Hints:
Layout: E1 2-7, H1 11-22, E2 27-34, H2 37-46, E3 53-58, H3 64-74, E4 78-81, H4 88-98, E5 101-104, H5 119-122, H6 125-131, E6 134-137, H7 145-156, E7 160-170, H8 184-192, E8 195-199, E9 202-206, E10 212-217, E11 221-228, H9 232-239, E12 245-251, H10 254-265, E13 274-276, E14 279-281, H11 283-290, E15 304-315, E16 318-329, H12 330-337, H13 341-358, E17 366-369, H14 375-384, E18 389-392
Amino acid sequence: MGKVLIIGAGGVASVVAHKCAQNDTVFTEICIASRTKSKCDAIKDSIKNSKSVITTAQVDADVAENVVKLIQEFGPKVVINVALPYQDLSIMDACLATGVHYVDTANYEPPDVPKFEYKWQWAYREKFEKAGLTALLGSGFDPGVTGVFSAYAQKHYFDEIEYIDILDANGGDHGYPFATNFNPEINIREITANGRYFKDGAWVETQPLEMKRTYDFDQIGEKDMYLLYHEELESLAQNIRGIKQIRFWMTFSQKYITHLTVLQNVGMTSIEPINFKGQMIQPLQFLKAVLPDPASLGPRTKGKTNIGCIYRGKKDGQPKTYYVYNVCDHQEAFAEVGSQAISYTTGVPAMIGAKLIMTDVWNMPGVHNIEEFDPDPFMAELNTQGLPWQESFDPQLVSEA
Ligand code: NDP
């Protein structure tokens, strides 16, 4: 069918490459390109039993011209950006310059100011529309599948969704006292920021980890979870009919929070550069360098993730509740593609989004968040590509206070 360019060679990119290679009648040619070519080569070498032709390339995607050159050489139909959020805009510019569709899993971040806002990417709407190109934003799990779940709930079960609780639980254990499951910089930025949720048309701010609940997760058991701001809240608040409140919850163990609190108290999570022996260093980047590489956690991690959304609203004037979620096993993911469930649950949806664009099932010129597309083909793919979902119409609810 066609060519796909994958940018990035981290944990998520590796899963994307494996899953594209499994779908070799759709992705007949795959180029894996990143800052460090040897990492692309290692991913290529780990892929077996695929008819896709796989090549690798070096690219610094901070500079749009570099990406333009690579796209012109390789000629893909779709680019999957699974580098870091800092590269989103340069890669989008390159896609516009070359007439290629764009998929990512995280919103653009200016390097020095953590914002978690879509405004920079939404500013490209008209340009992509005029060029007849589709930019699919946030095709990971959260954002990603959580948006697809929301579109599916809206399409099939509700006239109005009033309340959404997104629940992201990780019951995995890697055996280290402290490590982050994906890029530590992004992960720690997310957790140390103030919490925020959407209520009655406005944003309510909380202190970091101020709101805590306990939830009994299917196949994981009881976990403490904390209210965080998460980027899909911004687009869901705009795209879901009748919405009154959206909250996002993520589980963290007490051990994780204790380590993080200490690191924060001593200044190690700061993104303010400091002068160390004549060299400017960012404490958080230094911390990243001493922590275990998330990619190395795969073989050690046991247990499951459970991520899903609880919806409350109305259908035909009657109150209705719906919970849809996926449970993913770290070791099964590792056995299949050599990565743990956090990378797996992000990489599989990125491949699915690209597949739907590659096959013209999703074709909507402009810049769109994932919940704006028809959820049905994506929901069907989840079941066959390794992330089957389950549903319940009578779930345990997350208390309001
Ligand atoms: P990693 O840090 O493991 O990998 C990032 C990759 O991007 C590395 O290979 C890195 O290269 C490469 N890279 C960084 N800068 C550049 C550049 N300037 N040019 C080219 N390549 C570059 O991250 P993950 O794989 O864990 O995450 C990838 C993305 O997925 C992130 O944007 C993250 O926010 C997102 N994500 C989304 C989730 C979701 O559910 N929506 C969940 C988890 C992650 P090098 O190896 O040289 O450093």
